[in-house]
Write a structure and sequence with these properties.
Elements lengths: L3 H16 L5 H26 L14 H4 L5 H13 L1 H4 L14 H4 L11 H14 L10 H13 L14 H11 L7 E3 L6 H13 L7 E3 L4 E2 L8 H7 L5 E5 L2 H13 L6 E4 L21 E6 L35 H12 E12 L1 H4 L3 H13 L1 E7 L13 E7 L20 E6 L20 H11 L11 E2 L2 E8 L2 H6 L4 H5 L4 E3 H4 L7 H33 L7 H24 L11 H26 L11 H16 L4 E6 L4 E2 L9 E5 L28 H6 L45 H29 L1
Parallel strand pairs: 1-4, 1-6, 4-5, 6-7, 8-10
Antiparallel strand pairs: 2-3, 2-14, 7-9, 8-9, 10-16, 11-15, 12-13, 12-14
Helix pairs in contact: 1-2, 1-7, 2-12, 9-10, 9-16, 20-21, 20-22, 20-23, 21-22, 22-23
Length: 794
């Protein structure tokens, strides 16, 4: 939950490297991440030494961040720090137990180089200053972790901003949706075969901690980002599992992406995350130490948004993971396709254990493509495994990169690799029906700008709840689930805050953390508007008294000695001028209190300014009116030092309002006030037999293909051959509108039920059908007439 001022500093940090000539967004992020990592590394080493382990700096103290902070030259990083960083793996090769991720650096950092121009020492120095200001408490393992992790996530989001055209990045709210759908638990082994910067792996960790955090502690932003997800309700063993990198595996072809992703995980406190540069589709080589991580059936969950609409070299594919192009000859040793979007889904099936589950983003073509490879994949998923759901996403979700239409495919592996593809045509598919959800609104606008839709309806929340309850009695397709949204004001409790409010116990308790204003000052309400009004209503009368007290002596002086003024107008002008001059002293005293306010997010300062300036003007007008009316002005017994002290107290109350506003959502999803007029989700059967009332069993005991409830009789299904000897579906046996009848088509729109209620007409359905038949007849008559005319001319 980064404050605007921290975001500004991150932007400034980015711009430093941008102006230094590093214009590739990924390279800029990598260079910044190196500095963040070096800052964090010293804190990790301090924790390591505290446990009795040798320092990683034992041979090179000059590589500590504290030393880098003194020698801020690019040459020092180039000649001393980065050569040390590249060799750190060798230095730690004999360490028995990995801790805090330090021991796993080498393979990722062995080609790490600092790319800032040696002549840009001033820019490096400014960057170091910014990082120190961002992470003043990086030596504290707990208080800096959230800030550093959130900063890194914000830094990654910069790739998608205008003018920074970088590599494709999956929106975090889509990642969180997919993780929520699978709901992994501690101790689960998770893999992303196209990990990029590790977004799915990091979000899985966040989800597990969120699910096991006291709801009274947990805070969730409007888009689902969790905060204070401490995992405090986890047993110690499970908590350690959550932070054990061995449970999180990711592969990516891009070495820079892998290095950034790995450092991101370490910055979040994950020990030795298994992120590696590998082609997860390619051949596994036994000499490769990472090969065991690509073994079949090793993982409980797969979460990914793999690259699609690309073609790979089939010669380098691990064909054991994919169906073959043919049964004999060369094709027997070739994968069925070279299309990456299909190969990745096959690979995910291969990586999953029996009972393991997958959520993957696929282009719509995977769901309805009619090539043999497309059909075979869908047939495999539906007949041998369980397709749990398809969530159709709007076309603009991946803007500004592309407007390609995508869906989230969710499935569970039910057949082991050695037993796979044993399905016979007459066997019932393991997936009996597929649940679809069509998302039309999500967290951002669906245009190039992708503006935030804070506090507005969001189909993603409804999809999560409907998916969770779709097979329970509480499921209601027309109920719309949404969280409650509410604003709060937060601030970072830094040293300045601690000094200004040194006497407030709650403030001291939140040292170095982000806290809501009402948590720091319980007498204030949580809502920012109400909070401001409470302070204004309480302090305005006090400022009014102070302003009048400060001007009292001048007002009495003018009243007692009008200096021969003959008219009320002249007297009013004399009084107003004298009082205005004196009021500058009051305003000056108030201005001196600016030091009490947060210099980064001074919301209270603007309100305080408006209040004291307004009360000064009111006091001037009040006394001017009194003097003009020749009314006696009583003496107010209050000295300037007392007034100054009271002004400071009032300013301190306004200073409590400093911070930045955030939109939060409730942890629970609740039924929305209005029900849906049209369902956003539906189920479609995989196999539906056409009714055959003439059929009967050989002994004549069973008649009709379907029973009284409309269900197909097992006796009928067992005796009917749905496919001919060539494997072609017999059209007369299955309903052409079922999934199997449509060539295993999984496109959501193919099965969306027609809702008559949405058709605005006073006519009944029967009348509308009659109208359509009459129009059809007229069209046919017209075509016959046209045909006759053509034939007559011939």
């Amino acid at each position: 939950m980064l404050s605007p001022h921290i975001k500004r500093k991150v932007d400034a940090l980015w711009n430093k490297f941008w102006s230094a000539g590093i214009t590739n967004p990924l390279v800029a992020i990598e260079q910044i991440t190196y500095l963040l990592f070096l800052k964090r590394l010293e804190a990790l080493d301090n924790a390591r030494v505290a446990r009795g382990k040798p320092s990683i700096y034992v041979d090179e103290e000059r590589c500590r961040w504290s030393y880098i902070n003194q020698d801020r030259t690019p040459q020092h990083l180039l000649d001393v720090v980065f050569p040390w960083l590249r060799q750190l793996e060798t230095k730690l090769a004999n360490t028995e137990n990995a801790e805090n991720g330090i021991e796993a650096i080498g393979s990722r950092m062995s080609d790490a180089y600092f790319q800032l121009d040696p002549n840009k020492a001033a820019i490096l120095s400014e960057a170091i200053d910014l990082i120190d200001k961002l992470f003043e408490r990086a030596d504290s393992m707990n208080t800096s972790m959230d800030v550093m992790g959130d900063t890194f996530e914000y830094l990654l989001s910069e790739i998608s901003t205008s003018g920074k055209n970088g590599q494709f990045r999956t929106p975090r709210h889509i990642i969180r949706l997919m993780v929520d759908l699978l709901d992994p638990e501690p101790g689960s082994h998770i893999v992303d075969p196209a990990a990029g910067t590790g977004g799915f792996l990091f979000s899985t960790i966040q989800h597990i901690l969120k699910q096991h955090t006291d709801p009274e502690t947990l805070q969730i932003e409007w888009d689902g980002t969790p905060h204070r997800a401490y995992g405090d309700q986890l047993p110690e063993d499970a908590y350690n599992q959550v932070h054990n990198g061995a449970y999180y595996t990711g592969f990516d072809n891009d070495r820079t992406m892998v290095r950034i992703g790995w450092m991101n995980m370490v910055l979040h406190g994950i020990e030795n995350p298994e992120l590696h540069q590998r082609d997860s589709l390619g051949k596994r080589r036994e000499s490769d130490p990472v090969a065991p991580l690509l073994e079949s059936e090793c993982y409980d969950y797969v979460l990914a948004n793999p690259p699609f609409t690309g073609t790979v070299d089939t010669a380098d594919l691990d064909v054991s993971a994919y169906p073959r192009a043919g049964k004999s000859g060369k094709k027997a040793n070739q994968a069925i396709t070279g299309k990456s979007e299909l190969l990745f889904v096959w690979r995910m099936l291969d990586l999953l254990r029996i009972g393991g589950r997958c959520a993957v983003v696929v282009p719509e073509g995977v769901l309805f493509g009619n090539t043999d490879a497309h059909v075979k994949l869908r047939k495999e998923l539906l007949t041998e495994h369980l397709v749990e759901g398809i969530i159709s996403l709007p076309g603009g979700v991946f803007q500004p990169y592309a407007g390609v239409k995508t869906s989230i495919l969710i499935f569970q592996k039910e057949t082991g690799k050695l037993d796979a593809r044993t399905w016979e045509p007459n066997d019932p598919p393991r997936t009996q029906s597929v649940w679809f959800y069509e998302v039309s609104e999500e967290a951002f606008t669906l245009d190039q700008k992708r503006n935030e839709r804070k506090g507005q309806n969001n189909d993603l929340w409804d999809a999560i709840e409907k998916f969770r309850t779709k097979e329970t009695e509480e499921f209601d397709e027309l109920t719309y689930y949404q969280p409650e949204y509410f604003p709060e004001r937060w601030r970072l409790v830094d040293q300045h805050t601690l000094e200004v409010f040194s006497d407030v116990k709650e403030v001291a308790r939140w040292k170095g953390q982000f806290a809501a204003i009402h948590e720091l000052f319980p007498e204030l309400p949580a809502d920012p508007v109400r909070m401001e009004q409470v302070v204004i209503d309480r302090e305005i009368p006090e400022l009014q008294i102070l302003a009048q007290s400060f001007l009292n002596e001048t007002a009495r002086s003018v009243w007692e000695r009008p200096r021969g003024v003959r008219t009320d107008e002249n007297l009013a002008e004399l009084a107003r001028n004298a009082l205005k001059k004196e009021a500058t002293g009051f305003i000056k005293l108030c201005n001196q209190q600016k030091q009490l306010f947060d210099q980064e997010d001074p919301v209270g300062w603007k309100l305080f300014q408006k209040a004291y300036q307004s009360e000064a003007m009111l006091a001037i007008e009040l006394y001017t009116e009194e003097i003009t009316a020749r009314r006696k002005i009583d003496t107010v017994d209050m000295d300037e030092e007392h007034i100054k002290e009271q002004i400071k107290n009032a300013a301190r109350e306004f200073a409590k309002l400093d911070g930045y506003d955030v939109m939060l959502r409730s942890t629970e999803l609740k039924k929305h006030g209005a029900v849906l007029s049209e369902s956003k989700c539906w189920s479609a059967p995989v196999r539906v037999y056409i009714r055959n009332d003439k059929w009967q069993s050989e002994d004549g005991a069973v008649k009709g293909s379907h029973d009284e409830t409309g269900q197909v009789r097992p006796e009928y299904a067992a005796t009917v051959a749905i496919y001919d000897k060539k494997g072609a579906l017999k059209d007369e046996l299955l309903n052409p509108d079922c999934i199997e009848g449509k060539g295993w088509n999984l496109s959501a729109g193919q099965y969306k039920p027609f809702v008559f209620a949405t058709t605005k007409s006073e006519k009944s359905v029967v009348e509308m059908i009659g109208d359509l038949k009459r129009k059809e007849q007229k069209i046919l008559e017209g075509l016959n007439t046209l045909l006759s005319m053509v034939e007559g001319r011939e």
